[in-house]
Amino acid sequence: MRNIATFIYLFCCLNLPAQNVGTLSNQAASVNGYTLFSPNPDTNTYLIDNCGHLMHRWSSSYYPALSAYLLEDGSLLRTCRLNNQTFTQGGSGGRIERYDWDGNLIWEFNFSNAQYCQHHDIEYLDNGHILILATELKTQAECIAAGRDPNLLQDGKIWAEFVVEIAPVGTDSGTVVWEWHSWDHMVQNYDMTKSNYQAQANIPNKFNLNYVGNNSKADWMHANSIDYNASLDQIVLCSKKWSELWVIDHSTTTAEAQGETGGNAGMGGDILYRWGNPICYGQNGQKLLFDPHDIHWIDSGMVDAGKLMIFNNGKNRGWSSVDIIQPPVDNSGQYTLSGSQYGPSSTDWSYSDPTPTNFFAIRISGAQRIDNGNTLICSGPDGYFFEVDSNNNKVWEYINPVTVNGISTQGQGLAGGNSVFRAYRYSPNYAGFAGRTLTQGLPIELNPNSSNCSLFTNLPTLDFSHHLEIYPNPFDQHIHIKQPPAPNELDVVVYNIMGQVVFETKLSDTNYTIHLASLPKGSYILRLGNHPATIVLKN
User: Quick count: other Cβ atoms within 10 Å of Cβ 127?
Assistant: First the structure.
């Protein structure tokens, strides 16, 4: 007796190149599904299965900036880079596109000019609206008038973060229905003649206009992710330069969001909760975030649902981690301070490599809690995706083969930089796949090798000494059973090499032919009743 993984290895993988791109490993503990990613050096967005086979692809004329999402109607929502000449920071975008499943552009919207620009991320809402993370120009005169120390204006300007909610209109327009600006919630202790002159330590729910972190350039806040919690009606943002996350109230009106009253929390557009770097609000507590990315609430139905997950890049710390925290709230759901600081003082869960410095993604990157408690992690600069189980064991690994110099060839190393902002795993039961045909194609890389893909746990056991007598094999359209088993065991099941059932039927007492013309070329496993299965090959 041998299992199917052994057979596939012997049958397909002798004399093939060493695996250095695509799926490096795929263990039974990996969560089956489809992984979506949009490589930074490419205008395509890819959907792959756990073995790295290309299942779908969408093509654009623009590079990503930087996020892409598969929506529940099967459409792709992605950001695009317009190369805005004012806002030149990493992640600058300015355009949003939506493609249907068949790759048709069904909506496009530019949010970019000399005064503002979309960047990094967007968030799709259940009502069809879109939250846009954007930055706006504040001139030297505006900065000084607001109380910014002129000595901290290295570039003579700053870019302040803001959020707009867009209601798409037609195929190429949108209406702003809500907005929030960080600039409306600044305090400073430099110019006492200004109305916002206050000690930051006394007002943790405001931004310190003169906090500069490790730089005083225009890009002084550099938010990079946005997420929305419908049950709370709150938005969370993540700032790389401040090493903080910020929660704000979406239940406000736009007018209320400009002030400090109104909304469910009664605080207007002020910060409801912040975490990661207490020095930002005048406290001397321990810094726990280091240039983080991808802050989001864990989806309902997942382990740790409702908690916040964040990719903690670890710049100036020397190693990366994926962290989960539970913000402290009182009985009314209001975020609470522990003394003068926001807790918690430690994470609820964290992943880092056993040798911490072996996992260090200094920029971009993200993570996602998926089914059964596993976590999908994207080490962005390396284009390296891996999945860990609840014991932090790696159970799936993949390296993006798409580079700035084209698609890499298996066994020849990467052809160039292959960075990816984030990757997302979607369950086969995801609503976006309903009614869709996902056809398994070849892996993205050239000269592919599938020897390291071992998702064969759903397949029957092979018995090479008592396999069925079938002909022809290989076949073109159909196969015949020479001596079929007893009639009560004539259920026919055909599997592909991922363990998915691709064909089922029953043989009658008089007809021993199985018609398989609809199957694509490849290797299959055929089983009759409870008898050991056999390999069939279609030309």
Answer: 10
The 10s digit of each residue's pLDDT in 46-96 is 999 999 999 999 999 999 999 999 999 999 999 999 999 999 999 999 999
pLDDT surpassing 90 at residue 224: yes
pLDDT of 10 strictly over 80: no
CA distances 347 to 121, 296, 351, 412, 448, Å, are 25, 15, 10, 41, 40
Measured between alpha carbons, how far is 237 from 274 in angstroms, rounded to an integer?
Answer: 9
Q: What is the pLDDT of residue 509?
A: 64
**DSSP symbol at 510:** S
How is domain 17-433 classified at the CATH fold level?
Answer: Neuraminidase (2.120.10)
Instruction: Give the angle subtended at the CA of 477 by the CAs of 474 and 482, to the nearest 5°.
Output: 65
Domain 1-16+458-539 and domain 17-433 have a common topology: no
For the domain 1-16+458-539, what is the CATH code? 2.60.40
Single-letter code of the amino acid located at 266: G
Do 372 and 31 form a contact (C-beta atoms < 8 A)?
A: yes
Q: How confident is the model at residue 327 (pLDDT cuts 50, 70, 90)?
A: very high
Helix or strand holding residue 142 (H, E): helix 140-146
Question: What's the maximum distance between 2 C-alpha atoms anywhere in the chain?
Answer: 97
**DSSP category for residue 485:** -
Give the span between the Cα atoms of 29 and 39, in whole angstroms: 26
Integer Cα distance of 233 and 399 in angstroms: 36
Which two three-digit tokens encode residue 495? 């599997």
For the cut 70, the answer to whether the pLDDT of residue 204 exceeds it is yes
Beta-sheet strands, E only, within 431-507: 470-471, 478-481, 491-495, 501-506
- Percentage of residues in the chain with pLDDT exceeding 70? 90
Contact (Cβ atoms closer than 8 angstroms) between residue 28 and residue 457: yes
**Residue 339: Cβ-neighbour burial (10 angstroms; 0-12, 13-18, 19+):** exposed
Backbone phi and psi for residue 529, each to the nearest 5 degrees, phi listed first: 55, -135
Q: Give the model confidence (pLDDT) of 276-307 as tens digits.
A: 999 999 999 999 999 999 999 999 999 999 99
Mean pLDDT of the 443-459 span: 68
DSSP 254: H
Distance CA 342, CA 305 (A): 21
> Nearest 5 degrees, angle CA 50-CA 453-CA 18?
120
pLDDT digits (tens, 9 = 90+) for 156-186: 999 999 999 999 999 999 999 999 999 999 9
What average pLDDT does this structure show over 314-323? 97
Burial class (CB within 10 angstroms; exposed 0-12, middle 13-18, buried 19+) of 13: middle
Tens-place pLDDT, residues 35-47 = 999 999 999 999 9
Q: How far apart are CA 90 and CA 95, in angstroms?
A: 15
Instruction: Provide the residue ranges of all domains of the chain, joining segments of one domain with +.
Output: 1-16+458-539, 17-433
C-alpha dist (Å) from residue 406 to 8, 41, 183, 400, 401? 29, 9, 42, 11, 8
